[in-house]
Specification:
The chain is of the alpha/beta class and about 210 residues long. About 50% of the residues lie in helices and about 15% in strands. The strands form 2 sheets. Strands 2-3-1-4-7 form a 5-stranded parallel sheet, with helices on both faces. The protein has a two-stranded antiparallel ribbon with strand order 5-6. The model has no long low-confidence stretch (mean pLDDT about 95). The structure holds BIS(adenosine)-5'-pentaphosphate. BIS(adenosine)-5'-pentaphosphate binds next to helix 1, helix 2, helix 3, helix 6 and strand 6.
Length: about 210
């Protein structure tokens, strides 16, 4: 399946995309993960993106267009993909349409995950990530077996630079202003399916599965 997974920061897109990847055998394309890797490696893309990401702003559409065109152009995406974090603006919707048209591919659906803002802030404030393998934890909801250490690869866990309260509020504002409006467009094309993301990850995944099978 070729899916877009959208929703506010911290709603659980990455958590659910990892499960969907297992279920569907599709490629998981997280633009946030690709950008963070570029920042960590100090590539030209990473140097350009860093300031935007640290302040909670969006990276410019032109840069994102190059990134997504290159990523989806690799052969593996033709079999199916889960786009996590893209598109995020009206212009990015148009970019995605152009890229998919060029590759002769079409979206099967767009899933919008929703949760109350208080829950989102709680999830993001308690999130810890592994800088080496990108595994995601939560201090209360999904703690690692040994405090501060990644279960998967043993690296020291860290807090994302954009998970401070001030930057979280800015990311939520940007989401409401620039990203949420694109859901309406997908709705009018009959592609949008809204899935409540309150409840634990298993509950949310069961809802997602039911929505995809329904
Ligand atoms: P990105 O990395 O895409 O961040 P985001 O959209 O803000 O989403 P997050 O990764 O913060 O959250 P998530 O929804 O994946 O939640 P998660 O599963 O981790 O983007 C970062 C930045 O990159 C942007 O601000 C922008 O600058 C730039 N960028 C990226 N794409 C761009 C684009 N297309 N255009 C321009 N700029 C772009 O879960 C969060 C926490 O909650 C975890 O700790 C998890 O364990 C926990 N959790 C998850 N589900 C549940 C649950 N059901 N119950 C309890 N806890 C849960």
């Amino acid at each position: 399946m070729k899916l877009v997974l959208m929703g506010p920061p911290g709603v659980g897109k990455g958590t659910q995309a990892a499960r969907l990847r297992e279920l569907l055998g599709s490629v998981h394309v997280s633009t946030g993960d690709i950008l963070r890797e570029a920042v960590q490696e100090g590539t030209p893309l990473g140097r350009k993106a860093r300031g935007y990401m640290d302040s909670g702003a969006l990276v410019p559409d032109a840069l994102m267009g190059e990134l997504i065109g290159e990523r989806l152009g690799r052969g593996d995406a033709g079999e199916g993909f889960i786009l996590d974090g893209f598109p995020r603006t009206v212009e990015q919707v148009a970019i995605l349409d152009r890229v998919l048209g060029r590759l002769n591919l079409a979206l099967d659906g767009v899933i919008l995950l929703t949760a109350p803002e208080s829950e989102i802030v709680r999830r993001l404030s308690g999130r810890r990530v592994c800088p080496s393998c990108s595994a995601v934890y939560h201090l209360e909801n999904r703690p690692p077996k040994s405090a501060g250490v990644c279960d998967a690869c043993g690296s020291a866990l860290a807090q994302r630079r954009d998970d401070t309260e001030e930057v979280i509020r800015e990311r939520l504002r940007v989401y409401r202003e620039q990203t949420l409006p694109i859901a309406e467009g997908y709705g009018s094309k009959g592609l949008l399916r809204e899935v409540p993301a309150d409840g634990d990850p298993d509950t949310v995944f069961a809802r997602l599965k039911a929505e995809l099978e329904g």
